[in-house]
Every structure is written in structure tokens, then in C-alpha cells.
């Protein structure tokens, strides 16, 4: 029992400082670029989104639903955005994997809140249920709760 408590405590220490990633970038099986933005919208605000990337000093708008803004022409028919449950948006960009800059900052903005992540082209990971599951600190709460439950029984 003491060993179980020690292991649960160690796991808890590892989980507490972690937070779920609000933005993640990966490559889908068909080599499309996928950007998940899990920003929780603010209450009583219209859900607006913008997806962009920047390399060096140039920022390029890929997709948006903001009135008065428009994606750059090269992305208009290549990107698609769908809503995620319980909140957030997923943007998929087709046909740009080979043309990605070496170091790219991916940005998403939902209802005025901005998140960004710097990704090196060579370190883009494939999208998979397991990798996306492990990126979320919430995924570690269930094993921690099971561990604590077993230690108390």
C-alpha cells in the first residue's frame, strides 16, 4: 500500500504542473497539416476564429470566420475548419506539407484569445488518437484516480 501511495504521489506531481495543450500541430495520414485549437470561448461572445502561421517576420492568414478578414488566396480552397467538442476548432490544410518553412509558428485566435506554438518541420508528428490523447494532461487524471482508488481500497 505504501508503494502504491508513493507511485500515485509521484504521478500526481508530474501531472499537476502540466496543462493540456491549447494548440497542437500534426500531420494526418494523407499528409494534410492539422492544427487543433482548444481555446475555451468566453461567455456572451460570438465565436470567431483565425488560423495563421508565421515564418520570420511574415504572418499569413490561413482561415478565418472574422467579418472583414480574408485568408490569403493561396489558402482559400486548401483549408477547412470544423468545430471540436466540447470547444475549439480544427483546421486542416491540404497540399502544403512539402512547402512548409523549416521553423514555423502556428497561431490560432478564438474570440480574441491567442495561442501559438513553434514547430520545426522535421519534428512534425503524425496525428493519432494516442499521441493526441497523451498531449492532454486530462488523459492522465483517469489513471491517477484509478491509482488513488486502488490505494484506498
Quick structural summary:
The model is unreliable at 5-19 and 130-139 (pLDDT under 50).
Residue fraction in strands: 25-35%
Q: What is the tally of beta strands?
A: 9
Average pLDDT: 79
Sequence stretches where pLDDT stays below 50 over 5 or more residues: 5-19, 130-139
Rg value: 19 Å
State the shape.
globular
The strand line-up of the biggest sheet is 5-6-2-1-9
Order of helices and strands: HEEEEEEEEEHH
In DSSP terms (H or I, runs of 4 or more residues), the helix count works out at: 3
Structure description:
With 153 residues, the protein is of the alpha+beta class. 23% of the residues lie in helices and 34% in strands. It is built from three helices and nine strands; from the N terminus they run αβββββββββαα. A five-stranded mixed β-sheet has the order 5-6-2-1-9, with no helix packed on it. A four-stranded antiparallel β-sheet has the order 4-3-7-8, with no helix packed on it. Strand 3 and strand 4 form a beta hairpin. The longest helix has 15 residues. The N and C termini lie close together (9 Å). 17% of the residues are buried.
